[in-house]
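Section 3.1: Structural characterization of target chains.
Under the original work plan, the team committed to producing a structural model for every single-chain target entering the pipeline before any wet-lab resources were allocated. The record below documents one such target. The sequence was received from the expression subgroup and is listed exactly as submitted; it comprises 324 residues.
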Amino acid sequence: MNQKNIVLIVIFTSLITFGLTKAWDYFRDDTPSVNDSEVAKEHQEEEEHNPDAVVHLTEEELEEFNILVDTAGPGNLQLHRDLPGEIAIDPDRLAHIVPRFPGLVKEVRKKLGDTVEQGEVLAIVESNESLVPYEVRSLIKGKVIETHLTEGEVISDDDHAFVIADLSEVWANLSVYQKDLPFVRLGQTVEIDPGPQFPKTTGTISYISPTLDEHTRTATARVILPNPTGDLRPGLFITGRVVIEEDNVPVLVPKTALQTIDEQTVVFIRTEDGFKPQSVHVGKTNDANVEILAGLLPGQEYVSKGGFTIKAQLAKGSFGGDEH
């Protein structure tokens, strides 16, 4: 091979190498790498949760989306313990009416669930000895909750009786576990919650058992409750909410006001430009309200309910006037 051909081969090879290199750079630059995609995603998330972003809402939109705005201010924060329990009959309001003499039941005038007055006749029994009928009368006013007499049967023992209960007043027996004993005291106010189907009522603790039940390892706290409507039926499961501490705090908001953005607790506050998330530091809390230690000042307007809707629209970058 002569020298001229060698030179041509070298030049041709260099041109091919240069062209391939340029083509590779072109395609490599136009294809985003995994890291580039992650950066883009992070950038998008930053835009979605930009703390300076604002959602503009009219009064009509607030009403349409059921968003409530309140003014931050002081409040009374109650800390409590929830104790399980049940409604029971006051033993002093319970009577077992037993026929005095063995005999034949001639007539039963009251049945299960009937209301009776004190002295009212419950049944007629014919004595086995004298064959003379006598009346079985109620000793108290109340309701028949048990009856063991049937017309025509012969009775001969104490198993045959009426049980009458005065349910105009009942006991709420609450189970107090060892961890709650230091917080439960005589005279404390208790809110009794029988469940969503019944109205709540309030009473005070009148008795705490001096010993623990050997099976449940709990003490019993008793609340005496009026029961004029009869809704508090014996055996009904209840929850007793015992207030153990009350504190007047400078800023108190409902828990519905709190939202989480970028792992931070925020409250949406109203500014001249619209609603924006404001990081807050929370203090004491119960199941309904929370103390705000920093981030929300008394007098500031904030979203107390419906903040989730604003958060969703803030992430989407739409809603109302975000396009302004």
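The mean pLDDT is 85.
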